[in-house]
Amino acid sequence: MNLINQRKKIVRYTKKLNSTNLSSLRSGNISIRAKNKGINGFFITPSGINYSSLKPKDIIFVSLKGQFNKKKGKPSSEWRFHQDIYVNKKDAKAIVHTHSTCATAVSSHQKPIPAFHYMVGIAGGNDIKCAKYATFGTRNLSKNILSALKDRSACLISNHGQIVFGKNLETTFELAQEVENICHQYINALRIGIPKILSKREMKIVLGKMKNYKKG
Length: 216
Known about the structure:
single chain; alpha+beta
């Protein structure tokens, strides 16, 4: 995919953050791993622009060393955890971070989502972890997110929202939608009482079936 098409794709999916209610106005951010003029890095949404007016020229390139052209605008204030995920997760080709309503609500409890439903396994394990709180845009937050993403492709961020990564932007965006739906279901389950949790043995079976399903 050429560079302009990558920018266009980010714009299209960023607008979908608004239209699907995953994030409102200018909250949340999206990036795609890319190479620009021989430099490895990623394209990411800019800081402070209402997504309804976002244009391809607004998308910022940031190198894996954290360098960007300040004359072309400022990247999202969260660019550091995008950088750290791309550096540490070689299979990460796209990242979606949202302040979606249910994921944010659950994240405010600073606890993982247990296997109340087998679809929790879509994140890669027998729970969806919640990264410890740190101020947004800081390297400490990146460190906490990477810890929560160990053996996972999605996690919550305490008092903040959710973040997911994947092999392309299409499947990564779908994963963010899945996590938001799981959080919605979990909130409703808690309204009835404490849900029964699937065993680690059962989740091991589930994860095996999911892995084979994705390969298929």
